[in-house]
Amino acid sequence: MIDRTQQLAPPPQAAPLRVRPAAGRSLVLLVVFVCAACGLVYELELVALASYLIGDSVTQASVVLSVMVFAMGVGSLLAKRLRCRAAVGFGLLELSLALIGGCSALVLYASFAWGGGSRLVLVSFSLIIGVLIGAELPLLMSLIQRVSRRDRDVEGTVADLFAVDYVGALVGGLAFPFLLLPWLGRLTSGLLTGAVNAVVGGLLVLCLFRHDLTRRSRLWLLVANAAVLAVLGTATVLVDDFERAARRAVYGDRVRVALETDVQEVVLTGGPGGPLDLFLDGRLWVSEGDERRYHEALVHPAMRGPHTRVLIIGGGDGLAAREVLRYRGAASVTVAELDPVVVRLARTDPALTALNRHAYRDPRVRVVTGDAFGWLRSARSEPVWDVVIVDLPEPGTTRSAKFYSQEFYGLLGGALADGGRLVVHAGPSGTRPRTYWTVEATLRAAGFRATAYRADGGLSRLAAGPEREGRATMTAPCDWGFLLAAHASAPRLGLDSGAPPLTSLTPGRLAADARETALTRVPALAPSTLVHPRYEN
């Protein structure tokens, strides 16, 4: 994007152009437009992939954008040395930007899959791409002077450059989420953007400013363009093979299903005949080996009391619904899931349907797909629920943070029947006590009284990492923390008299886990709100 600090300098002496000034000016402005669009796509590519690989979209966006803006200023200063040979300098600059920017997402993903870390790579690419983008403007200003050397309206030329740059950034910013990502995916989008960048930059220099270059420079620039396009084209052809190899490196050799939805990446490994794991955006969400302990602890304490109408927020895998449906008194179960692809898999995948006992075939189950926050705000005609189960990833500074806010719990409070209970998965109380007890403070601020408990012996549902040569593994044993809440007073932990047989949950175990959880309390925490999320990363 354009750096406002640049000013037009006297045009350098160069060979006369064999094109009318108006046509040449339009071509240069067209290149400004394309370069601005490509530059913003590179930025958004890095932000999107870093948020997926590392997590915490707020932090990753801040790191990428701040580093790139700083680097753009550095690039503007460094470009002064190239302005005496603006044409060849711009040609080489665009080739470098096309190759590095186009391959940045590919290399970032590879560093995560095989190297286990990607933060240093993210910062490095942000810095390099920012320097290259920042160097574009001084050179483009020199080039537009070549075609507008008789134009004395300096301010008008600057205004045109700014206007075209901003419009290009707008187009690139809108094209990335609405066209490139849905149609091409993260990796192919970057490669295609790089190819466009190389073609446009090469055409401008080799056609419009070819007489500013020596014959040898033109030949080398042509060969370099062909080489860069060959690299990008080859990478595009092989990108599917690369993704499969990277998935095997991250998730192991048991990948059965890998889908890129409008919401997240969904990966199923193992089963049928082997243990099933479900990953959402690279983070383990369901592990067949221990999911029953998690879901029994999440669901059954909340079912003590009236449970005719039950609402499950999240839980698209159908496993929480499986536990609820074991109660004969559960007449209506509503599952509000953001990603319809997860629900579709839970309905159709043989291993997952076997695990959830075909929960979605039960006529008592109704599915609502979409954002639960917006749905609750608009669902004024919905009945109130006796039990609300929030089965979502643990809170953090991510898109799930709003579902752990005071405002969201206020909506749930209005949806509960008299004597109704709300249970929330709040993350591990042992390893992240501050986050866990912030959820409790937020529930109190929303008018609830909560009882804290946990299920021990699970494995942390965190991102797949390099613990075993980059393969997706669970992290060290920890606990799953829960909060059981109601309006009038904190509910007593226990099991309903009509509870089905359970494999890992007993009233005595619940009481012991509650006592251990209380020892982790962090006092005097402020509640988390939409405008002030307080969960640690």
TrEMBL record:
GO cellular component: plasma membrane
Membrane topology category: Multi-pass membrane protein
EC number(s) stated in the UniProt entry for this protein: 2.5.1.16
Top EC group: transferase
Domain of life: Bacteria
Chief location category: membrane
Pfam families, sorted: Spermine_synth
Protein name according to UniProt: Polyamine aminopropyltransferase
Origin species: Streptomyces clavuligerus
Organism lineage: Bacteria, Bacillati, Actinomycetota, Actinomycetes, Kitasatosporales
